[in-house]
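Sequence and structure are kept together here, with a separate record for every protein. A complete record is shown below as an example:
=====
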Amino acid sequence: MAQEMEVVTIGNTKIALKRGDITQEEVDAIVNAANPRLLGGGGVDGAIHRAAGPSLLQECRQIGYCAPGEAVVTGAGELKARYVIHTVGPVWRGGTRGEERVLASAYKESLKRAVGKGAATIALPAISTGAYGFPVDLAAKVSLCAIKEFVEENPGALEQISLVLFGENIYKAFGKAFEACFIR
């Protein structure tokens, strides 16, 4: 079960931070932290592919590739969502190769694709913080700033943006950044 930690409203958009399983979210679009070949994998990517069923992989194979910082859209198979937005975050290489810019782009491009599909609600994971090794505290700050910037530049484009975080450490790191970005 998801547990809300924080909610803030900017204009008409509610931004929520939750701890839970993104595959259980009842939203218009779920964001998948994908790999460039879109073939499924571990972590949230594997969980989304398993929950969605084989049709998701079939659609991903037809698309074939997604560059880091970009996003593509498929149907959601057996998930409760209508769409899965696949985005590729950066692999952490010490922070000197534009990793922060690519991560911010992954979030913004995902939100743009959701709006383009007419979605009102979207759930996003902590992109690049697992196998791609992006430091969680920095990822939380970059992610939340990108989301805030998108909402300020696109008022009312989305009704609700939920960050759905699986692990306790990631949840706490995002909670700290959430407080700093939105509350203070």
In short: The radius of gyration is 15 Å. Strands lie at 3-10, 13-19, 29-33, 71-75, 83-87, 121-124, 160-165. The mean pLDDT is 95.
